[in-house]
Every structure is written in structure tokens, then in C-alpha cells.
UniProtKB/TrEMBL annotation:
UniProt keyword Membrane present: yes
Gene Ontology cellular component terms for the protein in this record: plasma membrane
Coiled coil stretches, renumbered: 56-97
Ranges where the MotA/TolQ/ExbB proton channel domain occurs: 317-436
Organism in which the protein naturally occurs: Pseudidiomarina insulisalsae
One GO term of the biological process aspect: protein import
Signal sequence coordinates: 1-21
Membrane topology: Multi-pass membrane protein
Protein name stated in the entry: Energy transducer TonB
Pfam family for this entry, one: MotA_ExbB
Length: 451
């Protein structure tokens, strides 16, 4: 193998050598050049062999040194392994002795570790920690130290757990006011006075606050509950009443978080989509027309009653205009006067019953539009079920909300419109009845005079 390497190196050297001699002219010169190359190669090989023999002794010395170092390290490893085994036995004996000496104290410290961990989790989610920060970190460190290194707790550390529990119980029955950093709904952080109601709620500037998870900081709720709950905050901040009515959340914010997620009135209306807006628009138009008719018929009824007490007809009311027909045709016979009075009454009826039919139409169309929205919402729901299945109820909530909201809006519009139409129709009929009654009286009076 070594000779093969030498031959390869020689061939590489021959081919790598620069051509300094002139190219051979004939075969004799070529033979001469080959001899010179073999001589040079042989000389180079001899030099390499000489260097290898010179370094062989040095390599042998290095090998002897490495073997000696290996033997030394193996002896050291055996000695350390023996010491490790002895230390393991000593450590096991010491742990057994510690366990026997601790006795029931070991169970005590185990319970203390569990209580410290549970209390740290409770304090981390407590509003009291905003006023007294850093309590949960100390108990977490104590529980971690006792669990990882099996160290015993000191008297001060045991008392710190007792103090934290007692402080939490004491502060849960207090209403405290202090200043802290509050993150507003816009993201800005400001220092402001806040009021803490036990461990249940925290308020500031008429708004409810929430505890930022994992920290001792508070922030304004982006969505506040209904106004009747916010009104109790103002009473609490003024402190005028004793006791003060306050919307308390005994779960520490869970119920409040669910309460603010409930959609408001405008959000429910928006769930009705286009059909809901059409229903509300019709309801608004019907309400305006109904108010106009109500005021008109009320004033008209008052004028008709006033006309009943007067003999001289007035042109500002329907009854006066009907009674004026008698004076306009004093020489007409009974049949002619009857026809003239009927014509006058028929002329007044459209003014009295104007737009009442439109209100009746709205009262009928509104629930039909609600039914249309219900059908549309259910179609959207079934499409969502077809595409995504029934695994996520939120995908179906939009269609169901539209279906229910439009039905409610249709009924909300139809019921008042029906009552309004009934009221206005009754008033208009009463006025028309008075006109017909007075016209009949006028005809009877003329008939008596004629006979």
C-alpha cells in the first residue's frame, strides 16, 4: 500500500513538474530526459524515507504518552465512581434519618406547599392584589422552593402564608379607595383613584374595571353593562346613601364578563339585517301618521263637541260645514235636503278617515315581513350547516339571530299599529256618527215644518 502511494505521488510529481527542458528532437534525447526524471524521482523518495525514519521515534513517544494518560484517567474514573457510590449510600442514610426525625412535620410542610401554591393562584386573580401588589409572587417562590429543593420553610415563611390568607379574608369585607394605574379603553394608561368592593369588583369614573390576567394591573371594560348597573357606581362614588345599592358580581368578574357580551338594542336591530330595517322604517312611518291622525281627530272632536252647543254653524269643523247645508238650501224639500246632507257627509268622511287604511296595512304587513326575515335567516343557517356542519354553534348564530330578531321586530311594529288603528278608527267613526245623527235631526226638523 505504501509503494502504491509513492508511485501515485511520483506520477503526480512528474506530471506536475513544469517543462523546463526543450522538447526532444529525436529518440535519444527523449531517452536521456526519461533517465534524468527517474533519477530525480528516486532522489525525492530517498529524502522522504529519511524524514519518515527520523519522525518514527517521535510518534512512538507520543503513543506511549497517550497510553499513560489513558491509564491515569481510567484509574481516576474508577476512584471517582467508588466515591460516588459511597456518597449515594451516605445520602440515602441521611435522608432516612431526616425523614424519621421530621415525622409529622413532613406532612405539615407538604400541606404548606400545597396551600402556598393554591393561595398564590387565588391572590393572582384577586382585586386585593392591585392594592397590595407582589403577594402572589412571594407565595409562588415559596411553593417552588419547597417543591424543587425539598427545603424546609422558616417560621417567617409560614407566617407569611397565614398573613396572606388573613389579609385576603379581611379585605374581602371592605370597600377601599386608592390610586393606581388604569388602562383606559383607548389603550392609554393613567393614574386615577379607584374603588375596590371587597374581592368582587373595582370601579373608577363611573365604569367597571377588570383585572388583567397574570398581573396586578386593571383596565376599563371595553364594553360596559347596562345603564342601571352603571347608575349604582355613581351612588357608590358619591357615598350619599348608607347602605349603597351596587351591582355586585360575586364571581369576581365572570358574570360581568358574560353580561357585557350580551348584545345591546342597536346590535340586536343590526342582526335583523335589511328586513329588520324595512320593518322599522314602516313602523316609524306608521307611528308618524298615527300621531298626526291622533292629534287631528282629537282637535276635530273638540270642535265638533263645541259646535253641538252652538246654533250658528262654523266652517272650521265638519259638523259646522254639514249644518251650513241647511242654511244654504232653506226652501229645499225633505228629500233634496237629505241628499245634500248625505253629499256633505260623504265629502267630510275622507278627511276624517284619511291614512287610516295605510296604518292598517302596516299592521298586517309587518308580521309578514318578520316571517320573511325568519325564513331568510333559517336559509342562512341551513347553508352554514351544509358547509361547516354542526360542530361550531357560532357559525349558525347569525342566521338564527336574524330569524328571531325579524320576527320580534315584526310583532313589535304590528301590535302598536293594530292598537293605534283601532283607536283612530273608533274616533273617526264617532265623528262620522255625530255627523249622521245631526243630519238625521235636521231632516226630521225640516220634515216636521213642512207638514
Amino acid at each position: 500500500m505504501l509503494k502504491l502511494k509513492h508511485l501515485i505521488a511520483t506520477a503526480v510529481l512528474v506530471f506536475a513538474m513544469p517543462v523546463t527542458a526543450q522538447e526532444p528532437v529525436n529518440l535519444d534525447q527523449l531517452l536521456q530526459q526519461l533517465k534524468q526524471g527517474q533519477f530525480a524521482q528516486s532522489q525525492a523518495n530517498q529524502e522522504r524515507e529519511a524524514r519518515f525514519r527520523a519522525q518514527a521515534e517521535q510518534q512512538q513517544q507520543m503513543l506511549r504518552d497517550a497510553i499513560a494518560e489513558r491509564d491515569r484517567l481510567e484509574a481516576l474514573s474508577a476512584r471517582l465512581e467508588s466515591e460516588f457510590e459511597e456518597n449515594e449510600r451516605d445520602l440515602a442514610a441521611l435522608e432516612d434519618a431526616l425523614t424519621q426525625r421530621m415525622g409529622s412535620l413532613k406532612e405539615l410542610f407538604g400541606v404548606l406547599q400545597q396551600v402556598a401554591g393554591d393561595t398564590a393562584s387565588t391572590l393572582q386573580n384577586s382585586y386585593v392584589s392591585v392594592e397590595f401588589p407582589g403577594r402572589s409572587e412571594a407565595l409562588s417562590n415559596l411553593a417552588q422552593k419547597m417543591g424543587s429543593s425539598a427545603k424546609l420553610a422558616t417560621i417567617d415563611e409560614i407566617e407569611s402564608v397565614w398573613f396572606a390568607l388573613q389579609q385576603e379574608m379581611t379585605e374581602s369585607g371592605k370597600v377601599s379607595e386608592f390610586t393606581t394605574t388604569v388602562t383606559l379603553a383607548e389603550g392609554e394608561k393613567v393614574e386615577k383613584p379607584v374603588i375596590r368592593v371587597g374581592t368582587f369588583n373595582m370601579v373608577a369614573d363611573g365604569k367597571y374595571l377588570e383585572l388583567v390576567p397574570g398581573t396586578d394591573a386593571v383596565a376599563e371594560l371595553v364594553r360596559q353593562p347596562a345603564g342601571r348597573y352603571l347608575a349604582t357606581i355613581e351612588a357608590l362614588e358619591r357615598g350619599e346613601e348608607n347602605p349603597v345599592r351596587f351591582g355586585l358580581d360575586p364571581t369576581g368578574g365572570s358574570i360581568l364578563g358574560l353580561l357585557v357580551q350580551a348584545p345591546g338594542t342597536m346590535e340586536r336591530i343590526e342582526q335583523g339585517s335589511t328586513v329588520g330595517y324595512i320593518i322599522l322604517a314602516l313602523g316609524a312611518i306608521g307611528l308618524l301618521i298615527g300621531l298626526e291622525r291622533f292629534m287631528t281627530l282629537t282637535f276635530m272632536g273638540r270642535k265638533v263637541k263645541r259646535q253641538l252647543k252652538q246654533q250658528q254653524p262654523s266652517q272650521d269643523n265638519p259638523l259646522g260645514r254639514v249644518m251650513a247645508v241647511q242654511q244654504k238650501y232653506p226652501q229645499a224639500d225633505t228629500e233634496t235636503l237629505e241628499l245634500k246632507l248625505s253629499e256633505a257627509i260623504l265629502r267630510e268622511v275622507p278627511k276624517i278617515t284619511r291614512n287610516l287604511t295605510f296604518i292598517k296595512i302596516i299592521s298586517v304587513v309587518a308580521p309578514l315581513l318578520g316571517l320573511l326575515g325568519t325564513v331568510t335567516g333559517m336559509i342562512n343557517t341551513f347553508q352554514a350547516i351544509t358547509l361547516f356542519g354542526t360542530g361550531d354553534p357560532k357559525l349558525m348564530a347569525g342566521g338564527i339571530s336574524q330569524a328571531l330578531v325579524t320576527t320580534v321586530l315584526g310583532l313589535v311594529v304590528a301590535i302598536p299599529m293594530t292598537l293605534l288603528f283601532a283607536t283612530l278608527n273608533t274616533r273617526s267613526k264617532n265623528i262620522v256618527h255625530v255627523l249622521q245623527e245631526q243630519a238625521s235631526g235636521i231632516i226630521a226638523e225640516r220634515s216636521e215644518r213642512s207638514h
